[in-house]
Write a structure and sequence with these properties.
Layout lengths: L9 E8 L2 E9 L8 H10 L8 E5 L3 H11 L3 E5 L1 H9 L4 H16 L3 H18 L1 H8 L7 H4 L3 H4 L1
Parallel strand pairs: 3-4
Antiparallel strand pairs: 1-2
Helix pairs in contact: 1-2, 3-4, 3-6, 4-5, 5-6
């Protein structure tokens, strides 16, 4: 897959409710730095993105997007970080010969439905990464709780 520049990236917001679509919007590039994010989300909200029952935002972890969500929606928005992006970010810090093993190990904390198993798998992974690469460990820990929002909401089995 070819890498794209920030100018080639697009952010898409789509509101979905039990009865169907509730608003949408698209804006080009620069979202990682937060340029345009607040205005984009504010426009999406004005165009019909309803918040009465809360809002679940599924994002790749870009800090600019996360910041814009917080500023525009505050506590009304819950964030689910993309588990695939989280794994990729962690694995990218590792030497090639360890990437496949670590990728498999990093799935366990995210896939387990039982809180105690999930916590135990997370702690094992943290110890493993601490021995291999501290940057990978920091990447795992940063925002990890937001990779489990669907678990906390009891939606993980349904949306897996």
């Amino acid at each position: 897959m070819a890498r794209v520049s920030a100018q080639d990236e697009m952010v898409i917001a789509l509101g979905v409710t039990m009865s169907g679509k509730s608003g949408s919007g698209v804006y080009p590039g620069g979202h990682r730095e937060g340029r345009g994010g607040e205005g984009f989300f504010a426009r999406a909200h004005r165009s019909g993105l309803h918040l009465e029952q809360g809002l679940l935002c599924i994002i790749d972890g870009a800090k600019g997007i996360r910041s814009a969500i917080q500023k525009v929606f505050g506590e009304r928005a819950l964030v689910q970080r993309c588990q695939w992006h989280k794994r990729e970010n962690v694995v990218d810090y590792l030497p090639k010969h360890l990437q496949a093993t670590c990728e498999g190990n990093s799935r366990r904390p995210m896939r387990s439905r039982l809180t105690r198993r999930r916590k135990a798998a997370f702690e094992r992974l943290k110890l493993e990464l601490k021995l291999i690469n501290i940057s990978a460990l920091r990447s795992l820990e940063e925002g990890f709780g937001e990779t489990l929002t669907l678990h906390r909401l009891g939606l993980f089995p349904d949306l897996e």
